[in-house]
Every structure is written in structure tokens, then in C-alpha cells.
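Obj: model holo form, ligand = S-adenosylmethionine.
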Amino acid sequence: MTLVSLGLPTTPPAIGAVPIDTPRSGPLVDRFGRVVRDLRVSVTDRCNLRCTYCMPEEGLDWLPTEQALTTAELVRVLRVAVDELGVETIRFTGGEPLLRRDLEELIAAVAALPSRPEIAMTTNGLGLTRRIDGLVAAGLDRINVSLDTVNPARFAEITRRDRLDDVIAGLAAARRAGLSRIKVNAVLPARDDLPRLPDLLRFCLEHGYELRVIEQMPLDADHRWNREAMVTADEILAVLRTEFTLLPDPRPRGSAPAATWLVDGHGSPDRPARVGVIASVTRPFCGDCDRARLTADGALRNCLFAQSETDLRTLLRSDLPERSLDAAIVDLWRTNAWMKEPGHGVNGPNFHQPTRPMSAIGG
Ligand code: SAM
Ligand code: SF4
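Output (holo C-alpha cells):
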């Protein structure tokens, strides 16, 4: 059990050594009063697309299988998160979560927990048509499908794969399977993508999907992110307003990463159409963050941009007696959560990109 620093060495604390003021009961809280309710669980770092803002063309050195948490290890950690630490939403992500064959089993195990959380998934949609019925039967409640453009040539350029039809079919299958509030996540890698954005919103409105446009974050494996080249939330909203009337959304935002607007003239009175923008860089929402992350190799991370993380896998594979293991996980997790930084620091003078790229953290 060690606190692992990515980049700079840190002194690992002894088992049981916790900062003196870490709360030993109650919800998973940090020093600034934020409570973790939403856990993003990366089930694999592998992927079948190569989105330019995430992965290099040649892929990455995938995690050796034995280093990834097993089904049983994951179920144990998720049970502790939900039943002991008050986590209310589990979102499966990756890499591409559909590449993990035991996903249905994981979802079913989480759905059977006494404090059943909401179960969500973020996916690129490839292969979703084949899996969606089983995933929903297992307990999947909500889905976000990543789709940056409905232009086939541009889709192939961004993802380096010619698979737009599969993603669109996956979205349709999710609707047929009965999922409501299906969200589409879009990143615009270049300003040239802005004029095509209204087409994407139109596609989402026609099919009843809710579009979320995400500012590109400095988490690409190639480290090519550039602040000046980043398409900002203001630019995104300006281009959408050229073709749609966006009205203030009366629904409280809470800890949601997206600021949302109603799209005038679309949707129905009981289900108005919305569009959201996730302005992680230009309008950070760290003060309301309720998220924590678990990587596929069992590291707890308080933030996408955290410079340190806590290794849970060593504890899970230690010879600690079964009866003490849950309590040890709880202690380690509380300590990790307590140390969460007040903000992601992307706009600070000392920012440097974390060693792990997005695909190895879980977005
Ligand atoms: N493979 C799945 C997918 O693409 O939906 C799940 C993992 S992916 C890392 C999760 C989300 O992160 C996707 O919606 C993707 O667009 C987004 N993402 C990836 N790299 C990003 C970056 N550099 N900045 C902002 N969002 C990013
Ligand atoms: Fe794969 Fe998702 Fe990264 Fe695209 S954003 S390369 S689909 S992990």
C-alpha cells in the first residue's frame, strides 16, 4: 500500500498512517468540504479508436492483463465505495469499456448492492448494438456515447478509424433498449470543426440525444494540447447561437460538469431539449466537484489532473486477512480523498500535464 507519485518520488506512508485530521466516518469528504458521490471506474486502458486528442496513432503500451483489477477485485472495491463510503453513481469508462468482456457481470454485481447506485457508462459506441440489451438487463441506467461529428470524413480523421456508422447504430440501439436521457459527448479538436457543430446538435435533437460539448483538456498522450488552439466554451456557444436559440436552463446545475441551456422550439413541455457545454479549462467547476476516479490498474485518483494517486491494488493483493480488508480499503480511500487539491490547476503558472493520458485515467 503506497501513495504513488507520478513524476516525483514521495515517501510512502506506513500501513495505517493517515493524516491526523482525516475523518474516520461519514461520507468520503475532502478538506474543502466536497463529498465524493460519483465514481468513474476505468475498466481498461485499451481502445479500438485513436482519437487525436486522446491517443497516439500507434496506440499505447497497454497494461499487462495481470496488472488490471480482476472482476472480483473490482466488485469488492465498488461494494466498499457504495455500501461503506456513500458513492451514489458508478460510471464505467476507459479506454473503451466495451472491450472488457465482464462488463455485464460487473454491472449486475453493482446493481445487486444493498445501496444500489445509479449505473452509467461512457463509451465510443463500437459494438454497442451487440451488447446493449445485456448491459441494460444487467442494470445499466444511463449512457454517454462519444461522437464528435456526423461528417464521415472528419469522423475518420479525428478517430483514425472509419466507424461513424457503427457509433450511430450504437446510439440507436441504446434508444431501442429503453435508455432515456442518452448523452452524446463531443470534443472539437480544431476551430475548423466549429462550423459543423450545428449539424451535430441537429442530429442529436432529431434523435432525442442530449449533446455535451467538452473543451479539449491537456490529457492527450502526445502532449500536443495548446491553449491557443483549444476551442473554448464561448466559441462553442457563439456558433450554436447562430442557428439555435439557447434559453437559460431553470434546472439547478448542482455538481454537474456541464452548464446546460434549453434549445428553444425543440423537445416537449415535459422533456425540453437541452444542450450542455463542459468548460473544464475556461470555466473550471472544481469547487463543486463530487467525483473520484479508479484506474484499471487500481489507482485511486481525486482528479483527472492529480499529480499523485493511491495504489489500491497492492492492498487488494496483500495477505491482509479477509475480515480486515474492507476496513483497510475504507481507511486508504478516506486518506486519499482528504488530500484532494482545491482545483485542477490547468490555468496556474506551475501546471504540468499528468503522466497518465486520458485513456489510462478514465474520462
Ligand atoms: N472510450 C470511451 C469514449 O470515448 O467515450 C470512454 C473513455 S474516453 C477517455 C471518455 C471521454 O473523454 C470521451 O467522451 C472523450 O471524448 C473524452 N476525452 C478524451 N480525451 C479528451 C481530452 N483531451 N479532452 C477532453 N475530453 C477528452
Ligand atoms: Fe478511445 Fe475514448 Fe480515447 Fe477515443 S476518447 S481514443 S474512444 S478512449
